[in-house]
Amino acid sequence: MKRVMAALLVALMGLPALAADEARAPHDMVLLTIGGFVGKPNRGPLDAKRDSLLATLKANFKHAFAFDRAMLLGLPQGTVTVQPPEFDKPATFSGPLLREVLGFIEAAKVKTTFVAADGYTGYLLPEDIDRSDWILALSADGRPLGIGQQGPLWLLNTRAEGEAAGEDRRGSWVWALVYVHVGE
After folding, report:
1. E-only strand ranges, the chain
2. What is the DSSP letter of 107?
3. Which of 38, 91, 108 has the alpha carbon at shortest distance from 67?
4. pLDDT computed for residue 160 by the predictor
5. Predicted local distance difference test score (pLDDT) of residue 123
6. What per-residue confidence (pLDDT) applies to 134?
7. What's the whole-model pTM score?
């Protein structure tokens, strides 16, 4: 009986450690879903009815990580000061660093595609992510980016003089970002 009790006690003591390893589900509206080669998912496969926008955008995943605003704000943040064509003057954008977001979910270091609500896409290679200060901007000059105002998320970085996105959309600044796919 003592052995059974000891084994039960050891098992119960291990439960908090197991629970800490599980990724928490979002509590509020999901702003971003990341599918593909995600090592730490918090949701199951695409449900074409529930995930109708993602299905329309041809997202396909067996598991993914869904982020709400609080989850994104809980990650290490960065700032980028740029003047995108949609703005009349430079602005300081802030949001989680892309490499931190991908690291948090244990994403594979492979080609990563970014998909906007209207279907526009861009992509980055691992070296693009590692050598620049890419952020998922949630705000500009301290004000949240809303839907219809390039938000709620905008993939941005500080570009070197003369640097631009490739004709194949490598390095594009994708606004109204709703889905990221890690891998081909």
Report:
1. 30-36, 64-68, 77-82, 91-96, 112-116, 121-124, 135-137, 139-140, 143-144, 154-156, 177-182
2. B
3. 38
4. 76
5. 98
6. 96
7. 0.86
CA 169, CA 121: separation in Å to the nearest integer? 7
Q: Name the amino acid, one letter, at 126.
A: P
Low-confidence ranges of the chain (pLDDT < 70): 1-22
Rounded to a whole number of angstroms, the CA Rg of the chain reads 19
Look at the chain and report how many structural domains it folds into. 1
Is residue 7 included in any domain, yes or no?
A: no
The token pair at 62 is 């067996």
Kindly state whether residue 16 falls inside one of the protein's structural domains.
Answer: no
Provide the residue type at 155 as one letter: L
- Which CATH number belongs to the domain containing residue 98 in this structure? 3.90.420.10
**10, part of any domain:** no
Question: What Cα–Cα distance (Å) separates residue 79 from each residue in 69, 82, 128, 156, 158?
Answer: 17, 10, 17, 10, 9
Q: Which of 146, 145, 160, 147 minimizes the C-alpha distance to 92?
A: 145
Model pLDDT, residue 15: 44
- Tell me the C-alpha distance between 115 and 120, whole Å: 6
Name the β-bridge partners of 136. Answer: 155
The predicted pLDDT at position 22 comes to 54
Dihedral sign from CA coordinates of 127, 128, 133, 138: negative
Domain span at residue 117?
25-182
9 lies in some domain:
no
